[in-house]
Amino acid sequence: MTLPFTSDPVPENWDRRGLPAWCYHSAELFALEREEVFLRHWQVVGHISDLPAAGDWLGFDLLDERAVIIRGQDGVIRAFMNLCRHRGARVVEGSQGQCRSALICPFHGWVYNFDGTLRGVARPETFGEGIDKAAFALKPLELEIFGGFLFLRFRPGPQPSVAEWLAPYAAEFAAWQSERLQPLNVVSWSNDLPVNWKSVRDVDNEGYHVALAHPGLQDLYGRDYRDIYLPDGLHISYGFYGDRPGRGWSVRNYVKHSPLRADLPPHLRRNWAYYGLFPNTVIAFTPESAQFYQDLPLSPGQTRLTGRQYRLAQEDRQTRVARYLAQRIDRETSAEDQQLSIWSNESMRSGHFEGFHLSDLEYGLRRHHDQLRALLPVMQRNEAPDAAEIRALNKELACQTLARP
């Protein structure tokens, strides 16, 4: 089958080692990851269809920072820090909601318009010479929309605009009609795991384990699974299905009912497609549905798996049946991956763990680790540095890297 992408090839004689074990439980390294990886890179927070009307909002928390994304009276979606400018209280609480006419801080009643401007304060006469409303608007955050999905970041970072970064995905997102997706009648899902976030990514970034660890996926598309490596932290996984009826009940009936969409290009009509985004997100499409999922670190040893699911703008009964069956397969796969992540993470504290030795089919894992090393060169150290020296050592190594011709 002809594909529109040319993958970066797996090099010969590549370094098959992964990150050293200390990188998975160091609190000092985790603090650097917070600053240099997560707060400075784009995060998916939802889809335009999650905010259909003025005053609809989404909440998004990440490593002690918190955002509110809201549609204004003018129809524009904006992102702000979820911090009242008076005392820092949340102006909204939860993952999703709707405000009738304004954002009202529940602490002291400061009132903000949907565009973030300060409308008024309670007891203004108690503020001496008064409040300069223009100086106390909600703090804005970068927000961009790509294929209908909402991206924000808390600090300026190394990635370009989302449109430039994800340009290789643009044609396929358009083919999937991603801007026309509608949310399922459920709020975002989440599940906390007692693991470092990188252990979750390590499992998800390679297909070597599919054949044995995921019998449902192996039954569906394991024979025709392939990874495509692109620059700038992009990674596509395709799972082609339909050449066999499937042995398991869910797979057999899914293959039977999955809609054959003539509007899709041939290589996507019988395909579960996963579009990876560095550092921690995947946007996935099947012919009858879509979702994004991400791994949000909570601490060095705790990670929140979360995401949102979407359906086609118009779906018939057959499509709904296929979506139900796809969700059954996906739930089993997710449970299997979570257990693998726990087992993998446990090994990082064993005195007998001697590091990874990776297959060519696990090259995606190595690429992810290399991107982390580029951002945090202290990860190149095989032995754990003294905890008090990690930050200074990382700065020194980063300066050495910049100084090289």
From TrEMBL:
Cofactors demanded by this protein: Fe cation
Pfam families per record: Rieske, Ring_hydroxyl_A
Keywords, sorted A to Z: 2Fe-2S, Dioxygenase, Iron, Iron-sulfur, Metal-binding, Oxidoreductase
Residues covered by the Rieske domain: 42-152
Gene3D superfamilies from the UniProt entry: Naphthalene 1,2-dioxygenase Alpha Subunit, Chain A, domain 1 (3.90.380.10), Rieske [2Fe-2S] iron-sulphur domain (2.102.10.10)
Superkingdom field: Bacteria
Listed GO MF terms: dioxygenase activity
Coiled-coil intervals, chain numbering: none
PANTHER family listed in its UniProt record: CHOLINE MONOOXYGENASE, CHLOROPLASTIC (PTHR43756)
Entry protein name: Aromatic ring-hydroxylating dioxygenase subunit alpha
Organism: Pseudogemmobacter faecipullorum
Phylogenetic placement of the source organism: Bacteria, Pseudomonadati, Pseudomonadota, Alphaproteobacteria, Rhodobacterales
